[in-house]
Amino acid sequence: MTNEAATAQAAEAASASEPLPHGLGASLPAADARAKTEGTFPYAADLWAEGLLWAAVLRSPHPHARIVSIDTTHAREMPGVRAVVTHEDVPGSPLHGRGRADRPVFASEVVRHHGEPIAAVAADHPDTARMAAAAVIVEYEVLDPVIDPEQAFEAEPLHPDGNLIRHIPLHHGDPEATGELVVEGLYRIGRQDPAPIGAEAGLAVPRPDGGVELYLASTDPHTDRDTAAAAFGLEPERVKVVVTGVPGATADREDQGFQLPLGLLALRTGCPVKLTATREESFLGHAHRHPTLLRYRHHADAEGRLVKVEAQILLDAGAYADTSADALAAAVGFACGPYVVPNAFIEGWAVRTNNPPSGHVRGEGAMQVCAAYEAQMDKIAKKLGIDPAEVRLRNAMATGDVLPTGQTVTCPAPVAELLQAVRDFPLPPLPKDTPEEDWLLPGGPEGAGEPGAVRRGVGYGLGMVHMLGAEGADEVSTATVKVHDGVATVLCAAVETGQGFTTLARQIVQETLGIDEVHVAPVDTDQPPAGAACHGRHTWVSGGAVERAAKMVRTQLLQPLAHKFGMSTELLQITDGKITSYDGVLSTTVTEALDGKELWATAQCRPHPTEPLNEAGQGDAFVGMAFCAIRAVVDVDIELGSVRVVELAVAQDVGRVLNPTQLAARIEAGVTQGVGIALTENLRTPRGLIRHPDLTGYALPTALDAPDIRIVRLVEERDVVAPFGAKAVSAVPVVTSPAAIASAVRAATGRPVNRLPIRPQAAVVTERS
């Protein structure tokens, strides 16, 4: 199905006089779509409370410095200031962190990155709070920052835990194996910011029991609650996180260094406290994609079949560990890509520097290595003089093959089928060489040089990601389904971040119980945990929990009828709100069967366990995998180095389509994010300082930059271990599209293109190049 077909299907359904579609496989519209389009949907920045105070955070202007003294006297004496807090005012644990508790709530002795929190202020007006924060006097002894991750190995320790966060040596096969053909490459991936459409905001409200409620756009509310409780010196039961609307999330949405000062100020003042970050503060505070240095050597035989892959992968974690250990596991585990590689020897490191912290951003680890191994496949094809798609087909992975980690791929892996689909899709027509069509050229209207300087290139990318957590992570989720007066309610702490979980939950209940009206309750930490909204977790584990709970309610609904008619519940079915038996004897409606009763059930979903990689990088570390193939068509002005992405043809392994419109939108969004990674998004940090922390200096792709995206094939081969057989769809297009675009630019220019984003000088063709 193409994206145009999915959109047309949704439009036709919406305009028809028939009831809206429901159940799995239908394009059920999101319940909050109207409120969001009308601007009435409540986000944290919209919240208000009686007696509200405003917060501001003082952040370090240096990437590395020793704190000599902190003087808050002037700030405390300013009219309207109600509280100033520093590291001395943290009553509980002074350290926090998602992957490892190694980051201070407030810096006390040393600052390790630009923007690290030093102090926070609460005042009766936001301008007063900001002025008071600026009035806190901090005396620094500025230190030389370590900004090159390669220097981190020899540098003085930047942290009590040292500079090395994790090292993974992967050894698979025969180290002496060699191929007739050898290609090498050095690749660099820049720092990408998640750049959510809405900057961080939150409201903290003190409770009568001495606790606090935090209203946040959290994507992992129970982890945030536990972290906050530890910092506040409170029991978790006295801290409640209420999830507000999430204005965009392609990463761990909320900076915990933003949440914790907010709660501390509310506890200190006894008043509600609100903080809305500026875009600059947002850039300084949250985690970014890991900048990565990759060295590769591929061995292949005379036919282009891979014999051995050797690689070194170095992730710049920035000042703190965060989720860098997990990102490194993904990078090392998928370092060879969706290809059959009998021998692999990979060394991976994640190290601390004084650069801004790195963490979870969609496709972390897998995206960086995809850009490198696909460049290597292009080099092999060029050396052999064969089609780049053909060399990929000769090495494509399939179900039953073995990863370099020693794990057998048991899930559907239709890699060759995906690649053939995009390779065989018709190419877009060439632009006409007329003034009226100048807008088709790279650079936009009047932005290109002569049309004769434009070269077209076609390139390919094959990518893979893992779903759910890895290396022994407990991926449990809990959900409750209640039915009363013909209305179903789902309670699950799975956060809707735009991935469509609330819509999916409604579809599951509609499908299982035949009830049209289904509501999903707002999320807070009074509900059992559901885990973080990343790696497609909620489609799998939270959707699975909702399905199990709904099936338990279904059994409660059908048992009296089955008993009355002397048959088992398995002989009854629910379709379009009607209950019928296999023999037609029983026929009634769900509403009649309910007869005013209230039914409910709670269930959990926990996928099969995984294990950590051992000292040789071996182990069944991943629950499931998803694959994608993308063919990119680009036009490059070889004199100016400007690039226009003409078309991206996408084929993806999705397991099962649960909502066609929603799925197409997620794929398009992921592909477009990849366009930004490939061409424009690069958070520059000279000397460890974030340069131009705004959306003027950080160039996000806009609607004008988005290419034609053709979803040419969705392979629906169900994963038998996943609920509904579905796979997550958002991350793998992000991983694959930058590699495909770089491949197309190489085809157009003949240049190596070994850095992302692609700089103009890398696409300029001179006589010598």
Automatic annotation (TrEMBL):
SMART domains: Ald_Xan_dh_C. Residues 38-144 form the Aldehyde oxidase/xanthine dehydrogenase a/b hammerhead domain. Residues 1-18 have a biased composition (Low complexity). It comes from the Bacteria. Residues 1-25 are annotated as: Disordered. PANTHER family: XANTHINE DEHYDROGENASE, XANTHINE DEHYDROGENASE SUBUNIT D-RELATED. This is Molybdopterin-dependent oxidoreductase. It comes from Streptomyces venetus.
